Amino acid sequence: MIVFDLRCGTGHVFEAWFNSSDAYAEQRERKLIACPMCGDTGVDKAVMAPNVAPKGNSRSAAAAPANVPDKVKAALKALAEAQRQALEGSRWVGDRFATEARAMHAGDQPDEAIYGQTTLAEAKALVDEGVPIAPLPLPVVPPEKAN
User: Fewer CB atoms < 10 Å away: N or C end of the chain?
Assistant: First the structure.
């Protein structure tokens, strides 16, 4: 996983995690990354300060406990596992998510658990229409691109 500070067109800065730099680039190109404050999909990487480790023992123990990165890794691993379990038995529909969710909501096709991708505007429209959807906490690698 890699974390980037991102900035939307209106200047909001937020943090986002990706599987790789390529995953970030692909999601940005497809307008799948949106500012959590305003919904703008015109995001770019913000300037980030490098995380350079101090020399020797100059770092004070009170500044940052050494176990924080391990806790973060463990929490992300647990979240990823919970998401994986939640998606078991569901069907990947890719960019047809909005169409399929609407069809199920309208009764035009049987209800089933699905997951996929849609734009922020389309997701907002689904919510406005009363279609029960929820965003996934972590990015999903489409099955055809999984190792």
Answer: C
Token output for 33: 């990354």
How far apart, in Å, do the first and last CA atoms of the chain sit?
Answer: 15
Q: In which order are the strands placed within the sheet that holds 2-7?
A: 13-18, 2-7, 44-45
pTM greater than the 0.85 cutoff: no
pLDDT digits (tens, 9 = 90+) for 68-114: 578 888 888 888 899 989 999 999 999 999 999 999 999 999 999 99
CB under 8 A, 24+ apart: contacts of 76-85:
76/1, 76/17, 76/138, 79/137, 79/138, 80/138, 83/136, 83/137, 83/138, 83/140
